[in-house]
Amino acid sequence: MKDFILKRSNSYNFYKNNYESLKQENILLKEELEKYKRVYPPKECPICGYKGIDFKPYVSVIHREVECPQCRSHERHRALWLYFHERKDLLKKGNTFLHFAPEIQFNELFRSSGMEYHPVDLNPQNSLSEEVVDIQDIPYDDNYFDLIYCSNILEHVPDDKKAMDELYRVLKPNGTALILVPINGITYERPYDKSKTFEDDQYNTPELREKYYGQFDHLRLYGTDFKDKLIDAGFKVLADDYIENLGHEIIDKYALIKDENIFECTKGE
Ligand SMILES: [Zn+2]
After folding, report:
1. What CATH class has 73-266?
2. What predicted TM-score, i.e. pTM, was given to this entire model?
3. Which of 39, 78, 242, 248 is the most buried (most CB within 10 A)?
4. How far is the CA of 15 from the centre of ligand 1 (A)?
């Protein structure tokens, strides 16, 4: 008890004697904090409402602000969330919708849309999926779907050309296919030509894939020529600048990737 009183009186004397300098220090700290906030404004997740100083890094990816600590959304989920809330017209009741590798973040939004919703995955373990489907051989008729959403799938698919042809085949004329892939350079350290997709058969182990493509199960590293690949498959690419057009404040706030864009594709009559 004696010790405690002594400590207290010491700390009281310390504050009393140093009041002015501590006050000054406090003001400086507050100013520093304000400066920091201007340079690094707090992050927000539009999906779950998380607000905080940062998002979490994700596995091997070099880019740091990836995963929301609350809902585990990544950059692409947050971008798509903003997109679907702006384009509610795409989630039209009664329309057919093919969704590859369904993600928990969109489950409620899509299921409550009243669409004929087909969540599918090659992996039977995905509990949100209702059908096992290989994107290289889609078991649906030509021109069946009004909406297709295929995000971060093609970089895992051996024959991505076949997959794009299949997506084109099952899309209705004037339907919309939203296709996303990680475009190289953003999350990757090694320098290379970003205009060309990088793929080499000799990189055929998890270690080599991780080293050259940035993730152990990626089969290539797409370049900005990805858009040409979609056009070669027959698609009209209506837009590929949604994220960029959101502006840097929104991009920073939600920690989006400017160049990992949403390719909004359609098919002529
Ligand atoms: Zn979140």
Report:
1. alpha beta
2. 0.82
3. 78
4. 42
Q: Do the Cβ atoms of 180 and 261 come closer than 8 Å? A: yes
**How do beta strands 116-121 and 96-100 pair?**
parallel
Q: For residue 178, how far is the Cα from the chain centroid?
A: 13
Contact of 181 with 191, CB cutoff 8 Å: no
Enumerate residues with CB within 5 Å of ligand 1 (an ion).
45, 47-48, 50, 68, 70-71, 73
Quote the ligand 1 centre to 93 CA distance (angstroms). 26
Ligand 1 centre and the CA of 91: distance in Å? 22
Q: Fill in the amino acid letter for 79.
A: A
Q: Give the distance, in angstroms, between the CA of residue 22 and the centroid of all CA atoms in the same chain.
A: 44
CA of 80 to the centre of ligand 1 (A): 13
pLDDT tens series, the chain, 269 aa: 566 566 666 777 777 788 888 888 888 887 776 666 666 678 999 999 999 888 888 765 555 678 999 999 999 999 999 999 999 999 999 999 999 999 999 999 999 999 999 999 999 888 999 999 999 999 999 999 999 999 999 999 999 999 999 999 999 999 999 999 988 655 555 556 778 898 888 988 999 888 888 788 999 989 889 999 999 999 999 988 899 999 999 998 999 987 778 999 999 76
Centroid of ligand 1 to alpha carbon of 77 (angstroms): 9
Query: 65 CA to middle of ligand 1, Å?
Result: 12
Distance 247 CA to ligand 1 centre (A): 20
